[in-house]
Amino acid sequence: MNEHAPLPRSLLPLPGESLPGLLLRLAHRLDQRPADIALRAGLAIRITAHPANHLLMLAPQFRPVFTHVTRIPERQIDDLTLCSFVARYPPVAEALTRPGGSPQLRPRSYFPPWLLGASTRYCPLCLAGDGSEIQRRHGGAWKTQWRLGAVFVCLEHRFFLQDICPACGVPALGGTRKKLILLPSPTTGGLHPAQCRSARADGTACGHRMDNPDHLSEMSRPSPRVIALQQHIQELLSPAHDPADAFAVFSDLQVMSAIVQATWPATATVTPERHLAQALDAHITEQRQLQFETLPRVRRSNLWVTPPLSASATACLLDIATRLLNLNPRAARRLAITALADRMPLPTSTGWGKTWTILRRDCSSAFRTQMIEALPRPFHPHGTSPLTAWRRARQPLLPARSRGYLPEHIPQWLPDDWFTAAGLNPDEPFLGRSVVFRRFAAVQLVQMATGMLFEKAAYFLGIPDSWHQTPEQRQRLTPRDSFNHHTDQLPAVVEQLGWYAAQLTTPVNYRSRRLRFGDWTLSSEDWTTLNASLGRSARTRPRALDMLNHTCASSMIWTRLTGSEWRLAPSVLVHYPDSDPAAFDSDQATKIRWLLSRPDTVHTYYQRLSRLLIRHSNDLIENAHTV
After folding, report:
1. What is the pLDDT of residues 72-104, one digit of tens each?
2. Residue 159 DSSP class
3. Any bridge partners for residue 226, and if so which?
4. 451: region left, alpha or beta (phi > 0 left; psi from -120 to 50 alpha)
5. Residue 35, by phi and psi: left (phi above 0), alpha (psi -120 to 50) or beta?
6. In a 10 Å sphere around its CB, with 0-12 CB exposed, 13-18 middle and 19+ buried, how is residue 281 labelled?
7. What is residue 549's predicted lDDT score, i.e. its pLDDT?
8. Do 194 and 139 contact (CB within 8 A), yes or no?
9. What confidence category does residue 530 fall into, taking pLDDT thresholds of 50, 70 and 90?
10. Nearest to residue 555, comparing CAs of 541, 539, 538, 572?
11. For residue 148, what are the β-bridge partners?
């Protein structure tokens, strides 16, 4: 085959299909080796080198060749990888972002616990296909979600997912060694996509068909409770669910699952699923019989945080964790957590992996508070980082990662409707009426999407350095240590605002607007024209009042154009060079701005003027788009 020439025949990805599954079906249809297809599609640099991180995301440099060769539209590529779960499933976010680095997604050669990188689970009935001609020939889909540790039941067929080949006992699509792979035995051709590709001692492939429904028994049928648990998890993974809430729920489950495994069998009676508890007990017993000192460092450090490969054992683990997290009233959950904390190994001991980082950074505020209260006093969940209080106060409240919005979509002055749509009350003093908090929240949203330092994020928003570099008592923009009395509320509030920004279907590029209209003012000629349409009462006002009206009208339009607060509007002193600058910030000027911000005011003049200014600003925005 010619290098990077389009395939003579291709296949459309099946719903939910993974990249390895697509490569297997393409190879089978074209009677080629999977390695040849991967090489031709630009996924490998040589016949035996197939990066496993393609499972996480197809990086930009691979996409042009892949779409050209396979004829698959680029918009469908992310659906073949785990990338689409980055905003709602914490292990995917960890695998695609660098801690403390750029939030730009970049696949790592690393699969955290709760991601299956060395093998996959599968449903034999799904692999058998839906009966259509194309699936009868080449089989059904090896699905992307089967790589998520939290997916253990096929909801379509109501069976537990399988994890090993029934014939050879090797994990599905896995190798003989536990290592990250894109495809096992990629240079072996002639196999059906549903055949086991594990290598035997003589070098041949096992070849057993894993799409045989005879492998399923009544023990493979989950209970209604387990099915409901899987349905709930699927809802969290759905694009229709709030990603911030899903991220927090999965983080809570990760931490609680680690505690369950570390304290087993303390929670064995929590679940009524006795046969599942036996499966989890068998897994944990096997783990404890291992020679701890001989384990690889990564496996040793993640001993309690790694879920079982078995779907039934994983179902039991998540069932127990969910029951503990859902204990009601909260006092019952607090007692359960405290009891488990007394039984578990010290938080500083090996085996916890990143459990405490997840607790501190990603878990829900209520669960985080209860866990921290229950942990031993010598243990500090905030870590032993040498960060000074000054640096810590300037870090983002939540880790920087892809959050569904770009930093240029964040206005300098967050509007009331952002707070309302995010389920927050803008009339609360801590939120809407706190000018300092609005500035702080905007900076945080930029930091969360970029990883910028506090000062750089403020500069990106057009906030003057003087607002945060002045003596503390005179600062107009303060870092997060100024909100210590709202420590429990801050992460949730900022996360809600970020969720709302990500939901906007046509976000405004405020960064572009700030640059374009940075020095804009309402000219005297335009002000005269606008004022002339308001009747005699406008033309007979005193010059001082007319000047204030002009100033406030100009700042109102500029605020609407740039999404910034009026205090930073360019001064209209250029039009009134002999005026007292203090007049522009007087009580009377504040009252005029208040009247102009309410088109429904009973004051006829300002009501009509407000509507004219809104129309004028809309015209300016429209003209800017057409230039």
Report:
1. 998 899 999 999 999 899 999 989 886 655 567
2. E
3. none
4. left
5. alpha
6. middle
7. 86
8. yes
9. confident
10. 572
11. 115
pLDDT in tens, 158-213: 999 999 999 999 999 986 555 677 888 888 999 999 999 998 888 889 999 999 88
What one-letter code names the amino acid at 566? W
Closest alpha carbon to 50 in 82, 24, 15: 24
How far is Cα 51 from Cα 332, in angstroms, rounded to an integer? 47
Whether the Cβ atoms of residue 163 and residue 119 lie closer than 8 Å to each other: yes
| Whether the Cβ atoms of residue 151 and residue 161 lie closer than 8 Å to each other | yes
Helix runs in 326-424, H state only = 330-343, 355-361, 365-374, 389-393, 416-421
- The lowest-confidence range among 4-18, 19-33, 217-231, 593-607 is 593-607
Q: Give the H/E segment covering residue 587.
A: helix 587-596
DSSP state of 160: E
Q: What is the mean pLDDT of residues 569-575?
A: 78
Q: Residue 286, Cα to own-chain centre: how many angstroms?
A: 34
Single pTM value for the model: 0.67
Peptide bond into 265 cis (omega under 30): yes
Cα 97 from Cα 107, distance rounded (Å): 7
The model's pLDDT over 487-506, given as tens digits with 9 standing for 90+, comes to 567 777 888 888 889 888 88
Instruction: Please say whether the beta carbons of 307 and 257 come within 8 A.
Output: yes
Distance CA 44, CA 36 (A): 9
- One-letter amino acid at 272 equals P
Nearest to 325 by CA among 221, 232, 231, 223: 232
Paired strand residues for 154: 159
Q: How confident is the model at residue 386 (pLDDT cuts 50, 70, 90)?
A: very low
Output the average pLDDT for the chain: 84
Tokens describing residue 444? 């945080």
Question: In the structure encoding, which two tokens stand for residue 143, read together?
Answer: 């699905």
Local structure of residue 261 (DSSP, 8 states): H
Q: Residue 245: pLDDT above 60? A: yes
CB 97 within 8 A of CB 58: no
- 3-state secondary structure (DSSP) of residue 614: helix
The Cα 383–Cα 418 span in angstroms is 34
Alpha helices in 220-329, H assignment, sequence order: 224-237, 243-263, 274-288, 297-301, 311-325
DSSP 426: T
